[in-house]
Amino acid sequence: MSTTKNYAGIADEHAKLETSKIVLIPVPYDGTSTWQKGADKGPEALLEASRNMETYDIETDTEVFKQGIYLADSIDEKESPKAVVKTMHTTVKDYIKRNKFVTVVGGEHSASIGTIRAFSELYEDLTVIHIDAHADMRKEYNGSKYNHACTAYEASQTTNLIQVGIRSMDVLEKTVMDEEKTFFAHQMIQDEYWIDNVIDACTENVFITFDLDALDPSIFPGTGTPEPGGLFWYETMDFLKRLFEETNVVGFDLMELCPIEGDKTSEFLAAKLYYKMLSYKFQGQEVEEDYNNTYAAKDKAGLGKLKDNDKD
What we know:
The longest helix has 18 residues, at 265-282. The chain starts with 21 loop residues before the first strand and ends in a 12-residue tail after the last helix. It has one domain: Arginase, Chain A (3-Layer(aba) Sandwich). The protein has an 8-stranded parallel beta sheet with strand order 2-1-3-8-7-4-5-6, sandwiched between helices. By secondary structure, it is of the alpha/beta class. It has helices at 42-50, 81-97, 112-122, 153-158, 185-188, 194-200, 233-246, 265-282, 295-300, and strands spanning 22-27, 69-71, 101-106, 126-131, 160-166, 182-184, 205-211, 248-255. Strand 1 (22-27), helix 1 (42-50) and strand 2 form a beta-alpha-beta unit. Residues 290-301 have low confidence and may be disordered. The chain contains 9 helices and 8 strands.
């Protein structure tokens, strides 16, 4: 029996923590955004849209929800941006250690600092694919290094950071950016091999942090900082499908959904995008009737091995 409290209204048998391969963590936070507010309403809007979405994916011929999708408690930390990052770090790290494929839905992008920190501590040779309209490479902004404008800076110091779709930045961000691993939107449109080049630059394990303003505002207006010249649906699907096929994606987040009152376009697209990414990840994997939290099961799920000192 389906229940509305679960992701996509799936039946309880597919939504239990113990038997689910996938964990979805909502982060209704909007503490440092500097223009349009409302990203704190993004997670609930995506969840509501998911409950009105077909759960059979035509392209992959799968029903990925049968792998189990556990809807975790929302991260409702509001004390400070630093506190949000700390809570994200500890929460995500805990679920990774439980051998789950961890996903996050936000909420403003600053929360991803904590998420990326957890993945980088637990996975060797981590590449972070940062899909965004904005570089987010400031070391600090408005007196804080936990600002949405700083999302990618720490990752640039601790991981193999690859940035995709960038079309807005401050000139000072060029001083810390690796331009050989930055794929600017105006160059991508002229380069038929950009997907190949991104994949060639990846290491063993990949985490995707997806700021939804990377998408063109003509198909995705519901974000706090819309920028013209963004990605469209099928080129995004081509890119993501190849990432999941050719690298070991160990987790992802979707951030910066800012719902527009009276227009459900953006939240439904975000819900569909989230489900497509799961469908690509688990395509070809059988549903395990008796899934258990062992490292053997983790390896079957294709999540890879944790760093030796973090297996306890």
